[in-house]
Amino acid sequence: MAIRVLLVDDQPLLRTGFRMILEAEQDIAVVGEAGDGLQALDQVRALQPDVVLMDIRMPRMDGVEATRQITGPGRDGPAKVLVLTTFDLDEYVVEALRAGASGFLLKDAPANELVQAIRVVAAGEAMLAPSITRRLLDKYADHLPSGDDPVPDTLHTLTEREVEVLKLVARGLSNAEIAADLFVSETTVKTHVGHVLTKLGLRDRVQAAVYAYESGLVRPGAQ
User: Fold this and answer.
1) Do residues 49 and 8 lie in contact, with contact meaning Cβ atoms separated by under 8 Å?
2) What ranges make up the beta strands (E) of the chain?
3) Long-range pairs, 194-203, Cβ under 8 A, ≥24
4) Residue 14: partners with Cβ closer than 8 Å, 6 or more residues away
5) What does the pLDDT look like over 183-219, one tens digit per residue?
6) Which UniProt keywords apply (predicted)?
7) Count of CB atoms within 10 A of residue 126's CB?
8) In the chain, how many H helices and how many E strands?
9) CA-CA distance, 97 to 18, in Å (whole number)?
């Protein structure tokens, strides 16, 4: 079945461009559009999309609050949110990730990256491009804990290998890349990631990445 996508952006020309790109793919169907967060909530309830391509800065209700309501408790459907940001990285992207977004993408990304991002998010994975993630976290480095801050108690529930996996997730690596780095199977990596999410009470890989930085486990710019 085709991936059902809802386009949310206050610029009609951008929505038209995204629609043209996505409708050229056999496995993707654009089921609707919205010009602000309030319209997006109505459309999510009515259309039940799989993925919401969400702009951040919009009138009436911004993308952060819309994301929070779409992915939060009592949500009406299983929609995943992929946030759109500008080249300079919008200051609200971090808040959108905390609110429940499954990843973010630059508005001027190539068409193939947009299509791939939709597929990745629809499959339940996080869209964490390492280069974008690094720039974003570097920008907010001053707001993240230092290495001298105490490590959260929850981090001690992880095994040594699970900590390794969490660090690699925070760097934006896919399961296949983590498997190659650790010389284990991709199935083993999926098991480790699942354990990490369960033990830390996290929803997905995006929250895991944010947790790794906020806890001080990983520092911006670290390899």
Assistant:
1) no
2) 3-8, 28-34, 51-55, 80-85, 104-106
3) 195/158, 195/159, 195/162, 196/158, 196/162, 196/165, 196/166, 196/169, 199/154, 199/157, 199/158, 199/162, 200/154, 200/155, 200/157, 200/158, 201/154, 203/100
4) 55, 107
5) 999 899 999 999 999 999 887 777 788 788 778 787 6
6) DNA-binding, Phosphoprotein, Transcription, Transcription regulation
7) 24
8) 10, 5
9) 22
Q: How far from chain centre, in Å, is Cα 165?
A: 18
Residues 47-90: pLDDT tens digits?
Answer: 999 999 999 888 889 888 999 899 876 565 678 999 987 755 66
pTM: 0.70
Residues in the chain: 223
Could you tell me whether strands 104-106 and 80-85 are parallel, antiparallel, or unpaired per DSSP bridges?
parallel
From CA 208, how far away is CA 24, in angstroms rounded? 33
- Please name the amino acid found at residue 89: L
3-state secondary structure of 122: helix
